[in-house]
TrEMBL record:
InterPro entries according to UniProt: AIG2-like_dom, GGCT-like, GGCT-like_sf
Keyword Glycosyltransferase recorded: no
Alphabetical list of CDD domains matching this protein: GGCT_like
Sorted UniProt keywords: Transferase
The Gamma-glutamylcyclotransferase AIG2-like domain, residue ranges: 8-130
GO molecular function: transferase activity
Name recorded for this polypeptide: Gamma-glutamylcyclotransferase (GGCT)/AIG2-like uncharacterized protein YtfP
Record's keyword annotation contains Metal-binding: no
Length: 138
């Protein structure tokens, strides 16, 4: 596991109040900034899935964290995202390094991107999962 990059981009359930792994992030990471990556966001059911696409005219919006213990945090999140050592393929997500745009320029971050077909899932047009859920429940 590459442990040099300490930045993590989060766009989904980890940003929701009361999510225990989101609370874990807040205890083991420092909030850096909001960010966005070119791509599309889908409603997979109980969580979203992001597909990166440099040619997209839409963005996926989220938050960038600086991890205090890179290996520890990524190990916990790999398990949460279903790509830990005990999880058999095919995996829904893959963890990759990707450029994320901020108001201060680009930051290379770890991000969990959706790895399976999305044809049957609705796209979240505004690319913001938290806002989407808020509007969906209103």
């Amino acid at each position: 596991m590459e442990t040099e990059n300490a930045y993590l981009f989060v766009y989904g359930t980890l940003l929701l109040p009361g999510n225990e792994f989101g609370q874990y992030l807040n205890q083991h990471c420092q909030l850096i900034s909001s960010g966005r990556l070119k791509g599309r966001l889908y409603d997979i059911g109980r969580y979203p899935g992001a597909i990166a696409d440099e040619n997209s005219r839409t963005y996926v919006y989220g938050t960038i964290f600086l991890m205090n213990d890179i290996t520890g945090v990524l190990t916990v999140l790999d398990d949460y995202e279903g790509i830990g050592p005990a999880d058999l393929p095919p995996h829904e997500y893959k963890r990759v390094l990707h450029e994320v745009e901020t108001c201060n320029g680009m930051v290379t971050c770890w991000v969990y991107l959706y790895a399976l077909p999305v044809n049957q899932y609705p796209q979240i047009a505004n690319g913001n999962y938290v806002e989407y859920l808020s509007n969906k429940s209103a």
